[in-house]
Design brief:
This protein is an alpha+beta fold. It has one domain (43-200): NADH Oxidase. It contains 8 helices and 6 strands; from the N terminus they run ααβαααβββαβαβα.
């Protein structure tokens, strides 16, 4: 077994705030986050996007394999192609693939197969999961807990977007194979999420929703 180097862990400076105070403050902050479909075309810098992505890439992963690739797209031409392909799949989904129960559950969001935010948002981030890695000779290298790892990274990403004063939306046009082809990604990468990122439109609205209570989501033992 290979020896592993270790360094001493340095906890964050809590600036004399208790763990409870920090937890309460962060909960209040993160509960302001909403998934948004109405974006401004206001510019967001590449440096901002890079820092958000690298925050997401600090997420824990199985055996520290970091089995993800973030494709950051600002090209209007590529965004238009993504929108065209996504709307084609979404139209089929809304007109036959999705069950009546599913469609009924979506009514409160007033959403349909039209996805103008793909064109409007200054950035489209496509998160790919890496089913396996390849070494320099093209040999497959196993990754572990890929879906779990990439899901956690996506959560970090969404939190980092919110922290930056921006908004995003988790979009999953199904099937998403067209993203792999359109972006020329290798066979070991599979599309996981499409996330538009930008500022909210001035007239942006969100549905009135109620989150589950602590009693609904926590079981203490």
């Amino acid at each position: 077994m290979e020896a592993t180097d270790f360094i001493k862990y340095t906890p964050i400076d809590t600036q004399n705030h208790t763990a409870l105070e920090r937890a309460v403050d962060y909960r209040a902050f993160i509960e302001q986050r909403r998934s948004l479909r109405f974006f401004s075309d206001k510019e967001v810098s590449k440096a901002t996007i890079e820092n958000i992505i690298m925050t997401a890439s600090s997420a824990p992963s199985g055996a520290h394999k970091q089995p993800w690739t973030f494709c950051a797209i600002s090209s209007a031409e590529i965004k238009a192609k993504i929108r065209e392909a996504a709307e084609k799949e979404e139209y089929i989904s809304y007109n036959g693939r999705m069950s009546e129960e599913w469609l009924d559950d979506l009514k409160k969001f007033d959403t349909d197969w039209n996805k103008p935010f793909i064109d409007i948002a200054p950035w489209i981030i496509v998160l790919f999961k890496k089913a396996y890695d390849l070494d320099e000779d093209g040999n497959k290298m196993k990754n572990y807990y890929v879906n779990e790892s990439v899901g956690i990274a996506a959560g970090f990403f969404i939190s980092a977007v919110h922290n930056s004063g921006l908004v995003t939306l988790t979009h999953t046009p199904s099937p998403m194979n067209f993203l792999q082809t359109l972006l020329g990604r290798p066979d070991n990468e599979r599309p996981f999420l499409l996330l538009p990122v930008g500022y909210p439109a001035d007239d942006a609205v969100v549905p009135v929703l109620e989150r589950k209570s602590a009693d609904d989501v926590i079981v203490y033992y």
